Structures are given as C-alpha cells and as structure tokens.
Amino acid sequence: MKMNNRNLNILRKIIEAGYADEKTISTLTAEDMVDFCRDLREMKVIIELQKAVKANTLIAFLTSQEE
Fold first, then answer.
1. Rounded average pLDDT over 5-26
2. Helix ranges (DSSP H) in 1-67
3. What span, in angstroms and rounded, lies between the C-alpha atoms of 16 and 18?
4. d(CA 24, CA 15)
5. Which residues, other chains included, contact 41 with Cβ-Cβ below 8 Å and sequence gap of 6+?
6. Is 46 strand, coil or helix?
7. Which of 27-31, 32-36, 63-67 is predicted with the least confidence, judged by mean pLDDT?
8. How confident is the model at residue 39, as a pLDDT?
9. Do residues 45 and 64 lie in contact, with contact meaning Cβ atoms separated by under 8 Å?
10. Could you identify which of 6, 37, 50, 51 might form a hypothetical disulfide with 42, taking C-beta atoms 3.0 to 4.6 angstroms apart as the criterion?
C-alpha cells in the first residue's frame, strides 16, 4: 500500500494550521480553508478529507491513488 503524498501533505498543512483532530477538521468551513489553501484543488482534497473523517475511512484517503 502506497501513501498518497498530496493528501498527506494537505493533512500536514491542516494540522499545522491548528486543526489537529477529527472534530476540528470536520468543522472546517470554506472561509477557513481559504486561509491556508493555495488553490481550488487543495480545497477539494480537504472536502474529501472531511468526508473520509466522517466515514471513518482516513487510511483509505491517505493511501488512495493520486489523480
């Protein structure tokens, strides 16, 4: 199983911004994301991360194929 580096880097960025647990990650708003996202693609990945957290599939998110 190979790690998805893009998803992992975005998760690191979120944690560095102070969103260090599932609860705070799931409450991120678009306004919050604008503060540390470089582009719309990163915002989409964060939304997918939020879905993975909610569905308890974080490992699958981190090991998914890169697009």
1. 93
2. 5-16, 22-26, 30-34, 40-54, 58-63
3. 5
4. 10
5. none
6. helix
7. 63-67
8. 92
9. no
10. 37
